Predict the structure.
Amino acid sequence: MGHYSALAVAREAFRDHRGWQRAWKSPEPRRRYDVVIVGAGGHGLATAYHLGRNHGITNVAILEKGWLGGGNTGRNTTIIRSNYLQDASAAIYEKARALYETLSQDLNYNVMFSPRGVMMLAQTEHEVRGYRRTAHANALQGVETEFIEPGRVKELCPIIEVRGPRYPVLGALWQPRGGTARHDAVAWGYARRCSEMGMDIIQKCEVTGIRTSGGEVKGVVTTRGDVDCGKLGIVVAGHSGHLAEMAGFRLPVESVALQALVSEPVKPCMDVVVMANTVHGYMSQSDKGEMVIGGGADGFVNYTQRGSFSHIEETVRALVETFPMISRLKMLRHWGGIVDMTGDRSPILSRTPVGNLFINCGWGTGGFKAIPGSGWGFAELMAKGESPLCAAFGLDRFREGRFIDESVAAGVAH
Ligand SMILES: Cc1cc2nc3c(=O)[nH]c(=O)nc-3n(C[C@H](O)[C@H](O)[C@H](O)COP(=O)(O)OP(=O)(O)OC[C@H]3O[C@@H](n4cnc5c(N)ncnc54)[C@H](O)[C@@H]3O)c2cc1C
């Protein structure tokens, strides 16, 4: 597969761009693979990539019922940060954030990582205390964050009204190397490298059953025939419960719709990401000029992959006091994705009751930022049977009461 470079772009410009190869192949499924990954979202593709790159396992198929990146990976608002409270979370999210720094070079694909800085506004005294505590925890964990005063908030983001009548801005938790990346490009970049390593990415191939024998996984039933495997990884976000049921166990996960919207494009007015957890909304500006706006998840279990009018009203109402300028913007589009929420708002990266079957899910409203770290850790877990990055995120924690409570860090969907 050709190397993307400025020289390659110049060369192709002289021959009407006819020399580009397909970024990934579309093969027919084979009868057997060493490893099958279900779900070609960011986490499934990153897992496959690291299986090949870190562990030399390339006889891998990634099976996707729709198109790659068409789940939550291609629907999220792309915020990347690692300012979590608990040590296990900070470790995996910071590993991911650090990998994002060089992901474009590693994949030879421009994922447009933009470390423009993320701030989480403190709009109550309770939040001030909470974020000061997180800043201290982050200092101990080696995650670079600081608590900043309202004047600095205004300096970094002039369109914020810091003296709001109901919720004045009292400060913020600031992570200067947080930011955004282009979500589709992350999926496409991993897919291209996986295909280059000889892995099969098979789209429009739904897994409808899981075959086991003697307590071990043997393969999957798909809409394109049976596929045998040595190891199976389930990485299907909001559909994790269904896949677990196929394998005969239950997950402590609820699936709900999470929605977002973008405004019409406007001139550059905001070059940081702002989250306002008390009022429950967040905003950034895309490279195209659209204001990217998100809020909370639906309050009831559902599988509706689209936006709703009540949600737009709720989210915009939440943000308009802090960002008065959005009251005049027109909405361009809105959408939804099905996210998988655990009780402690932390993910599951785990072995399962079925031998050689592993599960990666529960990223809920905030898994885009974790994709490179999750892929790194989950590939290690699948290859070696254990991984320091994943150790705390096992399924057992729900039975043993070892919760990794991140309800504050994940207080607003992001
Ligand atoms: C509106 C919205 C905003 C968000 N904002 C952010 C944010 O700003 N920052 C952040 O970090 N996170 C955010 N998230 C969360 C983030 O998008 C997800 O946590 C992450 O993308 C999950 O990736 P994934 O690879 O696990 O799942 P997905 O990308 O959903 O991939 C799972 C894939 O599995 C496939 N699949 C399902 N069932 C089957 C089957 N039976 N057979 C074969 N394939 C199957 C699906 O089609 C899908 O493509 C947001 C999510 C939403 C919906």
